[in-house]
Amino acid sequence: MAHGAFETTYAAAGDRYERLPYRRAGSTGLDLPALSLGLWQRFGTDNAYETQRAIILRAFDLGIAHFDNADRYGPPHRAAQQVFGEVLAKDLAPYRDELVLTTKAGNPIGPSPYLKGGSRKSLLTSLDHSLRDLRTDYVDVFYHHRQDPATPIEETVGALADAVRQGKALYVGISNYDPERAHEAAVLLREAGVPLLVHQPRYSIFDRGPELNGLLDLAAADGFGLVVYSPLAQGLLTDKYLHGIPADARAANSAFLSPDVIDDTYRKRAAALDDLARTRGQSLAQLALQWVLRRPEVTSALIGASSIAQLDHNAKALDAAPLTDEELALIDEHGVHGTGLR
Ligand SMILES: NC(=O)c1ccc[n+]([C@@H]2O[C@H](COP(=O)([O-])OP(=O)(O)OC[C@H]3O[C@@H](n4cnc5c(N)ncnc54)[C@H](OP(=O)(O)O)[C@@H]3O)[C@@H](O)[C@H]2O)c1
């Protein structure tokens, strides 16, 4: 994907490390920004390159130096990494040492048996392809995107560890693993001398999975961090759907968020949470981000953004006072697990 040669006019903001706290990933040595930016949606052919570039650069200016990618992200698959690779080559190359770049493999990107799963073949060939797309020699974190019960975990974990030994990744992660399998992976990786850095589960006020299945406790016990995705429930934990579905919103344009989930039950719960946020002098989006970050096991909240304004707004999430026990109880009352999820 080439968008014409030009000299960058970008120089990173001098105060970029004064905006956001950085938090330690479990008992590892790596700190990550409290907010990270993911390129799952809106980073591909569905958005103007200049908008995508502007969002990435603003994120870095805000101290969001952690960018989450996967071979799957786009549309089409691979496009998000190609966009990021172009921005890296043209604008962010002088700052490569300051960036934490991730990629993931194993979620299907095609019909071939080697474009999915947890085999050594799938993982390591995907990583090589992603490095070419991202235009970098190494990623900071290489993830297995989702557990694959059909492949021996020793093979999957061995491929992750070898990516580090080959110098193609600095750390490894897993995503969407249930706690039992995550523990197995953590033990095997520790034995291999490549400790698990992070697990990436979905977690939000409307998705209490990591509380209910014990993953938060496991992260603390096994010493890995949690980078939690969709903390805004893809936008449902913002005020954008309280009075309808805007034409440019994800629920109107993406296969991953159905307009059907925006029903009266959802609206009632979201409105109650929005009221609570207002009494605290913040927005629902900011409350939702502050809520996931109240747990020390959560290293970073992994957000998406379709505009610079959203990023600027969300970056202020931690400006408000900590949540009180009374407020947390109210959030539990209206933040019912499963709201808006399929
Ligand atoms: N490991 C996995 O399997 C997995 C799965 C999913 C996601 N992820 C990672 O997590 C990242 C984030 O996921 P996500 O995009 O679902 O996260 P999210 O932060 O829950 O949702 C982001 C979306 O919410 C809307 N939004 C954000 N801020 C807003 C604001 N202040 N006001 C109104 N609307 C706002 C925007 O949607 P609009 O387009 O409607 O403006 C934005 O694209 C992904 O990019 C990816 O890196 C990983």
From TrEMBL:
GO molecular function: oxidoreductase activity
UniProt-listed InterPro entries: K_chnl_volt-dep_bsu_KCNAB-rel (IPR005399), NAD(P)_OxRdtase_dom_sf (IPR036812), NADP_OxRdtase_dom (IPR023210)
Sequence ranges assigned to domain NADP-dependent oxidoreductase in this UniProt record: 35-334
Record bears the keyword Oxidoreductase: yes
Pfam families: Aldo_ket_red (PF00248)
Keywords per UniProt: NADP, Oxidoreductase
BP term (GO), one: methylglyoxal catabolic process
Name the UniProt record assigns to this protein: Aldo/keto reductase
